[in-house]
Specification:
The chain is built from six helices and 31 strands. By secondary structure, the protein is of the alpha/beta class.
């Protein structure tokens, strides 16, 4: 039977029958400490004027929190729910909960179905969703989706189930994944950055000590990968996961970040001098084969430099003389402008041609020619590799 007003409940209560708190109103919040719900627990559409806490509570069967709201009618302050060390033996549902709520799960093991978000219609708008030190058991069926959320945090999350899905989620401010295992999980239509005519935002992303073995990423919008706070191994795993799904464009970006992180690891190490030079060149020339335009610019600039160094002393000059008439008392006078130095276009491109071998015809010293060809060959190799990485299938 619906309850209009409820005082806080605490102290190891045991509910032997179906606990029906449907439409209940908790004007002072609620605290269920070591409570046991032997049958179902229904908190659907309940109103909590303050935060509610379930501490070491046990739910032997289904627990429903659909449509719950956290709002003080006097202050319009948004609150939330915290579940610490609880046991859910049955299904758990948090669908269509109130806007701007914060839900936290700490030390929870989920055995059956666990649902958070909207079921059809408009996505649920949450302030935060946190899962800390939680476990999805092998038979768990997890669906977290249809959410627009400010902060999404997974810390020490262990997934043992092949039925874990994060679908249609937009994270607006912060995404944190630390010391977690998402093996076998699926992330689909997860937006971590948006840049179009209607919206422009990027969430802060932090990933550390997490595993993505056999994790599926479908249409995950990461934004600028340079902004992701993660270690080298994280980028390696993300690269491998996207390559397995043949998402090579995204894999290329994670590969670039993996190489940049390794370059920072060996920075300043005397036993890695050669690798430091190689990684510095790879970054500057083509962002580790992730930018094919940059080496083309390098090639043109390199050619212009060597060409100018070789030929400028021998360039033709011509005088450009301008006669001006004057009606002054001195009569006509002559103004001679400085000589104009110019390069022959055909000769420049002949010099740049990678297949050109007749340096004698160009009057180029052999030492300069060899040094230029080696340098240009390195840049051309970067162009080829970058294009192959961009167009592989």
């Amino acid at each position: 039977m619906p309850i209009s007003r409820m005082m806080p409940i605490s102290g190891g209560a045991t509910f032997t029958q179906n606990a029906d708190f449907h439409l209940a109103s908790f004007n002072q919040g609620a605290s269920f400490v070591e409570a046991t719900f032997t049958q179902g627990a229904n908190f659907s559409d309940a109103i909590f004027a303050q935060n509610h806490t379930f501490e070491s509570a046990r739910f032997n069967q289904r627990a429903l929190f659909d449509g719950v709201s956290y709002e003080n009618e006097e202050t319009t302050t948004k609150h939330g729910g915290t579940f610490n060390g609880c046991t859910f033996e049955g299904d758990v549902s948090f669908t269509n909960i109130a806007t701007r709520s914060k839900i936290s799960f700490h030390g929870i093991t989920f055995h059956k179905r666990f649902t958070v978000g909207a079921i059809g219609g408009i996505p649920v708008r949450l302030e935060a969703l946190e899962l800390v030190d939680c476990t999805f058991e092998r038979d768990a069926n997890v669906h977290i989706g249809s959410l627009i959320i400010d902060k999404l945090e997974f810390s020490q999350l262990r997934n043992l189930s092949p039925l874990v899905k994060f679908v249609n989620i937009a994270v607006k401010q912060q995404f944190v994944l630390e010391d977690s295992t998402l093996s076998g999980a699926e992330l689909s239509n997860v937006v971590l950055a948006k840049n179009d005519k209607k919206e422009n935002w990027e969430a802060a992303i932090k990933i550390a000590l997490s595993s993505f073995t056999k994790t599926a990423f479908n249409n995950v919008q990461w934004g600028k990968v340079e902004r992701i706070d993660a270690d080298r191994d994280t980028f390696r795993q993300l690269k491998a996961a996207n390559e397995d799904q043949k998402n090579y464009l995204q894999a290329n970006e994670f590969y670039m970040m993996e190489m940049k992180k390794y370059g920072k690891e060996i920075h300043g190490r005397k036993d890695k001098r050669q690798e430091r030079v190689e990684f510095w060149l790879g970054d500057k020339l083509s962002k580790f084969s992730n930018d094919w335009v940059r080496p083309i610019v390098w090639l043109i600039g390199l050619t212009a430099l060597f060409y100018a160094f070789t030929f400028c002393a021998e360039l033709k000059t011509e005088a450009n003389t301008l006669w001006l008439a004057s009606q002054g008392h001195n009569g006509e006078f002559l103004v001679q402008l400085p000589p104009i130095v110019y390069c022959e276009t055909n000769r420049f491109f002949t010099f740049m041609n990678p297949l050109e071998t007749k340096y004698n015809d160009l009057n180029v010293p052999a030492s300069i020619w060899v040094f230029y060809k080696v340098s240009a060959g390195l840049v051309i190799y970067q162009i080829i590799v970058s294009l192959r990485r961009k167009t592989r299938h």
